[in-house]
Design brief:
This protein is of the alpha+beta class. Helices cover about 45% and strands about 15% of the residues. It folds into 2 domains: about 80 residues, Arc Repressor Mutant, subunit A; about 120 residues, no CATH class.
């Protein structure tokens, strides 16, 4: 048999890679890391492409399992398929080469800095803030990394003191590390990371910056992180 005709059984990794090999599709996936559902029109505007072009790319991403869609009336909304997909996109972004060209405008530079300082990665916190929280929880014995990240007994008690109730067990791991694409260090993901992120919003510790996935610490949040984790204001400055 000709070697070129041979087929290797198993996952089609090349097909998945091909979905993200296009800059527009990759940009869509990065935008959807904010955890929201977007319309094709919104994504087309974000990427600077025609609506028909966006629709073609979205059909491929939905067909390939990276996105899921739902319809409300005439509108079609898409989002990342699940937390595992979001963490895959974030990890790939951390491994990707940095763009050589700096932002061309002051607003673009400000947006880039804001994302590096603090942002959501699907449903958990990322950026310098997410990494700082993860490292502070580790230093205080709330997380154990000896056999992979795990919540300790003290960590469970700490969450309870904050009033954070973890959801019932699912196939999603309680704790997972997600390699941060700007910090190149892990931040906290999994069910615990999601619950903690939700609490920071509900308690008014953070607020979204415009419609992006960048977030900013409020004065209440700065005091809370100092009281509960010993984080000072300077921890919000991205490391270089």
């Amino acid at each position: 048999m000709n070697s070129h005709d041979a087929r290797i059984e198993g996952p089609d990794l090349a097909a998945l890679a091909a979905l993200l090999a296009d800059g527009t599709r990759a940009g869509f996936c990065l935008a959807l890391l904010d955890g929201r559902a977007w319309t094709a029109t919104e994504l087309a505007r974000h990427a600077g492409v025609a609506a028909s072009t966006a629709t073609e790319h979205l059909n491929l991403l939905v067909g390939g399992g990276l996105l899921t869609q739902e319809r409300q009336g005439r509108h079609r909304y898409v989002r990342l398929a699940d937390p595992d997909t979001a963490e895959l996109i974030e990890k790939l972004a951390s491994m990707a080469p940095r763009r050589a060209d700096p932002p061309r405008s002051l607003p673009a530079a400000n947006r880039s800095r804001a994302l590096a300082r603090a942002r959501t990665c699907y449903d958990h916190l990322a950026g310098a803030l997410g990494v700082a929280i993860t490292e502070a929880m580790t230093d205080r014995g709330l997380l154990d990394w000896e056999q992979g990240p795990a919540l300790t007994g003290d960590g469970t008690a700490w969450l309870a003191e904050l009033g954070i109730t973890l959801p019932p067990a699912t196939r999603r791991p309680p704790v997972r590390s997600c390699l941060d694409w700007t910090e190149r260090r892990p931040h906290l993901a999994g069910a615990v990371g999601a619950a903690l992120c939700r609490h920071t919003f509900d308690a008014g510790w953070i607020t979204r910056i415009g419609t992006s996935r960048a977030v900013a610490l409020t004065d209440v949040g700065k005091r809370a992180l100092k009281d509960h984790l010993g984080l000072a204001d300077e921890t919000q400055t991205p490391t270089r």
